[in-house]
Amino acid sequence: MNKIITAEEAAKMVTSDKTVMISGFGISGTPNHIIQAIADSGVRGLSVISGDMGENDRGFRQGTAKLVGNHQIEKATLAFTGVNPEAAEMAASGELDLTFVPLGTLIERIRCGGYGLGGFYTKTGVGTLVAEGKETKIIDGEEYLFEKPLRADVALVKAYKADTLGNAVFRYTARNFNDTMATAADVTILEVEELVQPGEIGPDEVQLPGIFVNYIVEGKGAVL
């Protein structure tokens, strides 16, 4: 199976009836070429799961902030708005429906979704707004919240290098949530800076096995 597609073809898979995971912390490890193609597509009403809402503090929008600025995202599950005051303002006005989840809890919920687990118990959020409406349990005399898994229809992830089968290598902290999100979606689209042939990445180097990757977008250079 040929997994190589264009960013524009990837963008066509991101529709308003689907939940989409977008990797990255700010703009580190973010699939910016695919995001730009989605921004150009004009699709609206998106439901997104991400760490934050990109960056918009230098006079221009980067990463997921482009979709926020285009009013393409209707609701999002995330840890914080990031360096994007525009997202916070839109949430305050009711234009953007945001559900905040503590960052560690968010990633663990995604991990549970990828590993087929029914959820997990955590002390994070006990006694706060995070606990509202959630099942609780006393374990060894302490109260825990039960958090359910998160999955998506499509995951958009980013790697530094991958072969044409999708076996991927990340660069330093740009790995962030990428490998976890890649396991927790029905369709995973990998954006990669350097595309190589099978065998050019050693088995011990692989950080994301290609079995989790459905499509690959080669994205070289910066996206402004």
Explain what you see.
This protein has helices spanning 7-12, 32-41, 65-69, 85-93, 103-115, 178-182; strands at residues 4-5, 19-22, 46-50, 73-78, 97-100, 120-122, 136-139, 142-147, 152-163, 168-169, 185-196, 215-218. The chain has six helices and twelve strands. The two termini are 32 Å apart. The strands form two sheets. Strands 1, 2, 3, 4, 5, 9, 10, 11 and 12 form a nine-stranded mixed beta sheet that branches. A three-stranded antiparallel beta sheet has the order 6-8-7, covered by helices on one side. The protein is 21% helix and 29% strand. The protein has 224 residues and is an alpha/beta fold. It is globular. It has a single domain (4-117, 149-218), classed as Glutaconate Coenzyme A-transferase (3-Layer(aba) Sandwich), CATH 3.40.1080.10.
Spell out the blueprint of helices and strands.
Layout: E1 4-5, H1 7-12, E2 19-22, H2 32-41, E3 46-50, H3 65-69, E4 73-78, H4 85-93, E5 97-100, H5 103-115, E6 120-122, E7 136-139, E8 142-147, E9 152-163, E10 168-169, H6 178-182, E11 185-196, E12 215-218
Parallel strand pairs: 1-12, 2-3, 2-9, 3-4, 4-5, 9-11, 11-12
Antiparallel strand pairs: 6-8, 7-8, 9-10
